[in-house]
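Now for a chain:

_____
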Amino acid sequence: MKAVILVGGQGSRLRPITFDVPKAMVPLRNRPFMGYMVDFLKRGGLSGAVLSLGYLPDPIQSYFDAQDLDGFSMDYAVEDRPLGTAGGIKNTEAYLDGEASVVVNGDVLSGIDLGQAVAAHQATDALATITLTSVEDPTAYGLVEVDHDMLVHRFLEKPAADEVTTNLVNAGVYVLEPEVLGMIPAGREVSIEREIFPELQAAGRLRAHVSSSYWRDIGTPRSYLAASHDVLSGAVGAGEGFEYLQVDGSVRREKGVKILPPVSVAVGCVLGRSATVGGRSALGQDCVVGEGAVVEGSILFDGACIEPGAVVRGSIIGPHARVGENAIVRGLSVLGAGCVVGEGNVLDQGVRINPGVVLPPRSMSF
């Protein structure tokens, strides 16, 4: 059985990072997210995957072309225009050999047991089985009601607090029979959630499988940062030889540097005198943390530079972005590729700076 991985979206909720980096390739513990996705599918016993690609497909293909997948096949179906979730699945049909398939959203980090989900599907007459998980705040998601036989009863799209009848949400993992692909019109944008699943539900051919395993959508800065923290701490994605303190041997550390686990510091980084790095942080290749600077609970993409005395807490710093001397970036702020935060600025409360923007020294405070 093969998987279809839906990675065609533009990742608009994760901008400005995704202006330059496809969401599927954002790093977790200095490894692209898609690496964890392939591990997930392999653990479920799948033989290969078809990537349904659209936005920024080249970096994803280049990554897999350079990997040894140990017999796990990888094919690519690239959209020439947006086709939606169902249209993206339809676009992979030629690679699926007329067999049942697993479909996964390309922004879900999960510990779900795929083998159990497939077995639950095969034990019924369902044409599709949708995996559900429970969440603390049901109002932030589309909810799915099921009956005692696990037949899907109703969909509720982001209900108000007084309309909540369940805390089960779509976990973005489906098992589909080939007949479902036959229901999807070719060549146009189609939503599986809004068009295909309701039709299957009305026919009594849509069932659910509930999982209590780890699950997180990485599509927003808050959830992406939380996923990074979870991977760094080993809560998910911890492979053989996992270490809380992952510092490449090439990293240059000046006198007085503090590195506090869990942390990941990639090849070529430079940590200046008395700098502090830790508190669930990941530094990509060739990052620089200057003298006395502090990086805590954050993600630094390749080539990011944190100048002397600067502080970065709970934020995301894009490729080759620079935080100037004594500047502060905190509170889930996000810097796009190549942008510059000049000396003495304070960014807080989820500020997002687009790629290439330069904030002059002490020019503004948020």
